[in-house]
Write a structure and sequence with these properties.
The chain is an alpha+beta fold. It is built from 8 helices and 8 strands; from the N terminus they run αββββββαββαααααα.
Length: about 180
């Protein structure tokens, strides 16, 4: 079974629901327990949390991406972050119970789930090391190279937050190019 067929199997009409979402809609609030997995059909979502009253963005998701607070979903613990739409979006979602029932008896679906978890872990590891090793300029250059669609679709203040800098610093970096 191909990856697309697996995804269609998970998010079929019997268990998944389509949800149109206006911009700036919170799908999961920090501190709440996640009970859904989303597949983005159209649009852009971001993960963020609050630190000392500041909104810190740490990941963006686009068409074809799965998104959930996997830790919260799996453990039943409060989410450490919020999930919000950045632009008008459309997602399919499946409830936790339905999702785990589907992957429980299907090794291909279980493998896809594990791949997504490993991809997420790898992304976070890369982000963590980049914040330690790289300058803001280097982080911006890396973002341009690896994720050019973020620069085109995401507001500057979210990009600055993601890079760990102020919007003014981001403007300076962009003007140096």
């Amino acid at each position: 079974m191909t990856k697309d067929n697996l995804i269609n199997h998970i998010f079929n009409h019997n268990t998944a629901e389509t949800l149109p979402i206006p911009p700036k809609t919170i799908l999961l609030e920090e501190g709440k327990i996640a009970d859904r997995i989303y597949l983005i059909r159209k649009g852009c979502l971001r993960l963020f949390f609050y630190n000392e009253g500041k909104d810190i963005t740490f990941q963006f998701f686009f068409e074809g991406d799965f998104v959930a607070s996997f830790d919260s979903l799996y453990k039943g613990t409060p989410s450490l972050f919020s999930l919000e739409s950045i632009e008008p979006s459309e997602v399919l979602f499946i409830k936790k119970e339905d999702y785990y029932n589907k992957i429980e008896g299907n090794s291909s679906l279980r493998k896809l789930y594990e791949e997504k978890i490993i991809e997420r872990f790898s992304f976070y590891q890369h982000l963590f090391l980049s914040r330690i090793k790289n300058t803001p300029q280097q982080r911006y250059e890396e973002l341009l190279k690896e994720y050019p669609n973020i620069i085109q679709r995401v507001p500057q203040h979210y990009i600055a937050s993601y890079l760990g800098i102020t919007p003014v610093s981001l403007s300076r970096i962009r003007n140096r190019r």
